[in-house]
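Q: What does the assembly look like in three dimensions?
Context provided by user:
Components: two
Sequences:
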Amino acid sequence: MKHRAAVLGTGQTHHRSKRTDVSIAGLCREAADRALADAGVAIGEIDAVVVGKAPDLFEGVMMPELYLADALGAVGKPMLRVHTAGSVGGATGIVAASLIQAGVHRRVLAVAFEKQSESNAMWALSISPPFSMPVLAGAGGYFAPHIRSYIRRSGAPQHIGAMVAAKDRRNGARNQYAHLKQADKTVEEVLASPMLWDPVRYDETCPSSDGACAVVLGDQAAAEASAGPVAWIRATAMRTEPTMFSGKDHVNPRAGADAAAALWTAAGITSPIDQVDAAEIYVPFSWFEPMWLENLGFASPGEGWRLTESGATEIGGQIPVNPSGGVLSTNPIGASGLLRFAESAMQVTGKAGEHQVPGARTALGHAYGGGSQYFSMWVVADTPD
Amino acid sequence: MTDVAVIGFAQAPNERHSPATTNGVEMLVPIFHEVFEATGLSKSDIGFWCSGSSDYLAGRAFSFVSAVDAIGAFPPVMESHVEMDGAWALYEAWLKILTGEAEIALAYGFGKSSAGLLRRVLALQLDPYLVAPLWPDSVSIAALQARLGLDAGLWTEADLAAVAARSLSDASRNPKALPVKAPASGFDETTTEMLSHPYIADPLRAHDCAPVTDGAAVVILAAGDRARALCERPAWITGFEHRIDSASLGARDLTGSPSAASAGRAAGASRAQVAELHAPFTHQELILRRELELGEDVRISPSGGALGGNPMFAAGLARIGSAATEIMSGRAEVALGHATGGPALQQNLVCVMESSGRTA
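A: Here is the predicted structure of the complete assembly.
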């Protein structure tokens, strides 16, 4: 039997290129303290801690959760460490939810982070192990051909990516914690920025951020005892497929489509675009907004760019995407997925401040990782069912 | 709460230097085949997959991503990964069955410990600002722990040698353990001779330290009636708990393990008739036996334990699988599998399994 679970509170750090003012532990504690305060829960009331982050090589610390046990109040408690590539932040939220849905714990703290300034992510991604295709110059070079394929298949006009980038940067300016705040960013400026990996321009890529995100989850009793509004977890879904295989569709991966289908079914959603009020989708390169809108079922294949072009993904549009500014404004890799999940909870609890989608009651949090092969997502709402 | 049982276990042969790549695929494919053949299951029966491994051990980012190739994960699967021993992957798999999202779940762990200099690699698990820069290696930290116990009168070097002699004797009868050359005089008479061997990290000798080992392990869990249909004697999980201690080596009494004691009490460890302990060093077995309140009559690590092979990130899962095998084979009614992670027994997991289930 699945027990009900809810987000009691969320917290995140101020994100910057280099948070030299804090250690890894200080960074994580900054997010955890905000989440605990938001939830009105004392650290001693937490039953278990789940830590997520992307590869350990990004900081040069092997299994840093061992060292973080003290800073996160986990000593004497269960602690789990999740790593599912770029989707890890989402997976961290889902594992934490499972601890409650399984009936094992009442209150769980999930923390995800990346402190990219402590090591060199490009180095960590560029190791060439035997029998594996090298990623070469990081993730942008890996994903650019998939984007070109999307443009060819869909016939999308060239400026769609720039529209996404300008919108997300403007949204980021409304988010007090965002790394990049570019309130006046225009499509023309994005199109004038240097080409990095055709068709991805400099302004269409995510930054490298130091940052952390935390959420406090609780069972039904904890949720009902909460003084503030909570976000009920209606459904979660995870799917994985291999990086490379004959028949792999990098533009519209089946693992993502399967996860979305399972998610909507479990959440009782039959028409996502009509029933979801806000979506926090993992968009590290601008063109992934229309690609994932299709993969998630918000639009038919080849039609996602029309939503972007029409303004439907703006705050105030039919399906606001990344009102927080998304990954394009803030990317502490391991935390980026949990930020999507936390921001979705902030929307349905009315706590999103300047980037609040008015009246949002049902929201999606989404993350993906690896070679478009790991997908994790959840739906949260302002009522339990 | 749903009844969940271990119904299948397989492990790769423990090897000192596997020719396999560090992503585990070559070690995993044969044992997936073995466990599916034994249970009559196929990959399409698995509702949830979860793995445990370490990128630092593999010397690359995202090593577990390649390991997914061992599954043949298309159509896509529900899957997750922990950067921990596979025993914690099994814990996550157990959760997924309890939520009702899966009826059958598979956990695996893999590690090619020989790919780097293991004791140096493990130094990177320490506080990255204040401790790791000094490069205290894992064997030296264990030696400090052993020395504290000697000085406190908790054990003698002969006690440690006796643990090693028993473990190696058992390992010599385990076809999956590293090959052990039996002494001419037999294992029981050798502790005096063993004490004449040189220290490698005072007071630890080579026989006190688990050998650097490559390997992999897989365990399958099933819920209620599915377990009964798939296995004659399922190993029902009646207690599954884990805890972590402070990372600050100077802030805790290294001669004990509060996390093991707490997990053991919560899981019902003291009822076990047989316990497979993940003790990479001989003195750690003695700590665990005390903290888990295992009596003199409890059989300890009949597989030979970690001294018979300690494939990082798989050895803890293999302990649980070996303990479950004691139930499934009818040799025990209550069995305990234990896993550890981090320096000096920092993190511990206890899984208690019984032949008759929780409700009986």
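Follow-up: The CA atoms of residues 14 and 176 of chain A lie 8 Å apart.
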